[in-house]
């Protein structure tokens, strides 16, 4: 199957044209792929289809006119929908997009978390493809996206095995990033990103850049304990997380040396040191957008899975509590949060 098959009948829909969707929409359009970006932010839609969508930052700078619509303006059915809304907006987006997905079409999740279960429940498992996304971007203003740094982009079927369609989807997305790969088992990467993401949620308790917090020796007991807990829940779910972009799950497992974890955290810090995006999307939701984060959808799911296996995930629960306190303006974002959290984790671990 050729990548062009996905847009032989209708443009590729990019549902949610913010940081991730906007980057993909602009750069696919720039490569000559027919795309249509769908977003609820009318000003952003209008700017992107008239003056163009501007991509800023160290990776690429361009202004690309992108065909765009609000959900209400959209007509017709499409074979490929790249879904890039925040996890908590997935259900609403699915309700809107269902009528626009062709019978043999697919929804590809370009999201963090385990939204594929929800997507499959709505459009059917046979029309769902999973993604693991780690490039960094920010929605800056209507018609303006910052592309901070390149990062892993992997696609896979819900069931193990490489299919022609997922191979063709990866080929399609190589027009966005040439290193995009189709993998025979996506779940180790999805869980790898959840463990990685737990560290990003933790760094968002502070105002410092990700690279600074990840490299700070005082925070490391917290990062190691947190990642180890998430990896433990993945084990219970029958998945052995895999790493990318400096994150090495094996280095956080019980029995691994402190030096191995330190090396992995140093490499993660290095990944962001020269990025145009110095702070995570979680930090941006809290500090700039001043809105709820994806913590319940992403970290909450880890707690729910642990509980369904008869155990718990206490450090993740404490992380969620602290993020909620910042969301509700009951806690300031400060380095002291990480220092205090690391000390608490060490105290719980003490015999
Ligand atoms: N940003 C990043 O660097 C990375 C993000 N991710 C993940 O990618 C996913 C997308 O995140 P990101 O791009 O940052 O998010 P953004 O908020 O930047 O973009 C999402 C866009 O979708 C819009 N939207 C919300 N609901 C709908 C809807 N029903 N239909 C159409 N559009 C809608 C949003 O509008 P509004 O703002 O009004 O809600 C927003 O414009 C998340 O799961 C995130 O964790 C993964 C790796 C890196
Ligand atoms: C930091 C990043 C971009 C991963 O590289 C991310 O996942 C986020 O901001 O949510």
UniProtKB/TrEMBL annotation:
Pathway: Cofactor biosynthesis; (R)-pantothenate biosynthesis; (R)-pantoate from 3-methyl-2-oxobutanoate: step 2/2
Family matches, as Pfam families: ApbA, ApbA_C
Limits of the Ketopantoate reductase C-terminal domain: 187-327
Presence of the UniProt keyword Calcium in the record: no
Catalytic activity: (R)-pantoate + NADP(+) = 2-dehydropantoate + NADPH + H(+)
Transmembrane helix listed as a keyword: yes
Protein name: 2-dehydropantoate 2-reductase
Chain ranges of the Ketopantoate reductase N-terminal domain: 12-159
Assigned protein family: Belongs to the ketopantoate reductase family.
EC number of this enzyme: 1.1.1.169
Regions crossing the membrane: 12-29
């Amino acid at each position: 199957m050729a990548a062009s098959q996905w847009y032989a009948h209708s443009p590729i829909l990019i549902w949610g044209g913010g940081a991730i969707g906007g980057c993909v929409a602009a750069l696919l359009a720039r490569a000559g792929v027919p795309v249509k970006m769908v977003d609820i932010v009318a000003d952003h839609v209008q700017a992107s289809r008239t003056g163009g969508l501007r991509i800023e930052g160290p990776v690429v700078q361009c202004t690309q006119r992108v065909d765009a619509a609000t959900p209400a303006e959209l007509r017709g059915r499409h074979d490929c929908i790249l879904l890039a809304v925040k996890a908590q907006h997935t259900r609403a987006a699915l309700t809107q997009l269902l009528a626009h997905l062709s019978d043999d079409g697919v929804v590809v999740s370009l999201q963090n978390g385990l939204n594929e279960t929800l997507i499959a429940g709505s459009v059917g498992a046979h029309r769902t493809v999973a993604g693991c996304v780690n490039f960094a971007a920010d929605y800056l203003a209507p018609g303006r996206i910052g592309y901070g740094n390149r990062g892993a982009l992997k696609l896979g079927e819900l069931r193990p095995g490489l299919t022609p369609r997922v191979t063709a989807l990866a080929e399609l997305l190589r027009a966005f990033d040439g290193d995009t790969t189709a993998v025979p088992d996506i779940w180790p990467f999805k869980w790898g990103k959840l463990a990685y993401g737990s560290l990003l949620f933790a760094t968002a308790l502070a105002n410092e850049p990700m690279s600074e917090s990840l490299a700070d020796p005082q925070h490391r007991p917290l990062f190691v304990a947190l990642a180890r807990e998430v990896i433990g829940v993945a084990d219970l779910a029958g998945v052995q997380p895999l790493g990318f972009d400096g994150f090495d799950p094996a280095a956080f497992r019980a029995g691994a040396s402190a030096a191995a974890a330190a090396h992995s955290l140093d490499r993660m810090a290095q990944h962001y040191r020269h990025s145009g995006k110095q702070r995570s999307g979680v930090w941006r939701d809290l500090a700039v957008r001043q809105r709820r984060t994806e913590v319940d959808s992403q970290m909450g799911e880890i707690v729910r899975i642990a509980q369904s296996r008869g155990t718990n995930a206490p450090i993740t629960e404490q992380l969620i509590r602290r993020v909620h306190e910042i969301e509700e303006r009951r806690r300031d974002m400060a380095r002291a949060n990480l220092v205090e959290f690391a000390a608490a984790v060490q105290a719980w671990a003490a015999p």
